[in-house]
Amino acid sequence: MERKIHYLFALITYPITILHLIFGHYPQDKFISGVIFYTAAFIIYITLVYLYWLNKTGKRVVMYCLFILAILCIISIWILY
User: Fold this and answer.
1) What average pLDDT does the segment 57-77 reach?
2) Which of 2, 41, 72, 76 ranks highest by number of CB atoms within 10 Å?
């Protein structure tokens, strides 16, 4: 049941966000970067949800992926500012 909720959340928010970008009157470059970013985030989210429910090793892989993602976010904040 929880797995279906995660997939449902992703499948509902993806088209809503894309429609927001389409009808939000964003400049062409912001629109393209927004679609690319959200599509990449969507793919990563779906992949991590799938791996999490795959088996016990998948849960460990998801934990390591989220840790690496957090470290990358912290490093990118230091680099950009």
Assistant:
1) 93
2) 41
Contacts of 49 by beta carbon, 8 Å cutoff, 6+ apart: 3, 6, 7, 10
Record the pTM: 0.81
Identify residue 45 by its one-letter amino acid code.
Answer: Y
| Cα–chain center distance at 2 | 18
- Res 20 pLDDT > 90: yes
CB 77 within 8 A of CB 66: no
Nearest to 4 by CA among 38, 50, 43, 48: 50
- Of the candidates 40, 42, 33, 38, the residue with the CA atom closest to the CA atom of residue 11: 42
Q: How far apart are CA 33 and CA 44, in angstroms?
A: 16
Crossing angle (nearest 10°) for helices 28-54 and 2-23:
180
